[in-house]
Design the sequence.
């Protein structure tokens, strides 16, 4: 059985109980795998004096426990969204394709651009009353870590989890792009929670500006609402370019 048949079997014929269990395992493996990889990388870079911490304050008591617990809530909610998408596909409400060609790249580009818009809008919504009190769960980590990435109040996770299902009502994505997108999303989101500055390589340093931008959001609160790029902030937030790129 080739990879396409495996995906078709999972989406169209597998029992829903096994589907949701598999999705929980996949999201959990993705979260813990990427978090641990970045944690080890950060430690190695700092030890070799190739990077320095942005915020030097101490983490709050039991911060890691807090982050992992709320991240597990997020994992469950994202898995349930995956289940909902599969149910809607089986009932002909959503459509997907299984092409293994340049469509994967096109679909990923569409999802990445849409994610910048979606993340910014959701983030601004979470900074309104009364939702700001729920968003405080994420902002409790003023000193961010790779485990902070999914640390949300469940209601915020419900909002963030709409990133895939909304565009699927208007466009038929490839299942392989849908599978790869969470890897992209969590990787770049985790970069934003590394709390480090790289000491070498101008090009690489610019690519990791997301870390300093998102750190400024956790410390200053009302700046840098965007995801991997600052362009939504440049367009819709009344701050200067220099304030975001400090």
Sequence:
């Amino acid at each position: 059985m080739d990879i396409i048949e495996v995906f078709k079997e999972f989406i169209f014929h597998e029992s829903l109980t096994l589907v949701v269990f598999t999705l929980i395992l996949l999201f959990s493996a993705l979260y813990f795998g990427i978090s641990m990889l970045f944690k080890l990388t950060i430690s190695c870079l700092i030890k070799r004096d190739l990077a320095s911490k942005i915020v030097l304050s101490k983490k709050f008591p039991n911060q890691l426990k807090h982050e992992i617990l709320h991240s597990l809530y997020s994992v469950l909610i994202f898995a349930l969204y995956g289940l909902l998408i599969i149910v809607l596909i089986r009932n002909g409400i959503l459509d997907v394709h299984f092409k293994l060609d340049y469509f994967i790249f096109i679909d990923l580009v569409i999802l990445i651009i849409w994610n910048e818009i979606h993340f910014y809008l959701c983030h601004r919504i979470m900074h309104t009353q009364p939702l700001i009190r729920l968003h405080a769960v994420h902002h409790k980590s003023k000193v961010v870590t790779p485990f902070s990435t999914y640390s949300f109040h469940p209601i915020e996770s419900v909002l963030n989890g709409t990133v895939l299902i909304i565009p699927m009502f208007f466009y038929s994505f490839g299942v392989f792009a849908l599978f790869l997108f969470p890897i992209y999303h969590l990787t770049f989101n985790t970069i934003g929670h590394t709390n480090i500055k790289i000491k070498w390589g101008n090009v690489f340093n610019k690519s990791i500006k997301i870390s300093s931008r998102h750190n400024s959001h956790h410390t200053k609160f009302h700046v840098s609402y965007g995801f991997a790029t600052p362009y939504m902030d440049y367009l819709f937030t009344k701050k200067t370019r220099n304030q975001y790129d400090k």
About this structure: Residues 3-244 form one domain. The chain has one domain: 3-244. The chain has a mean pLDDT of 90.
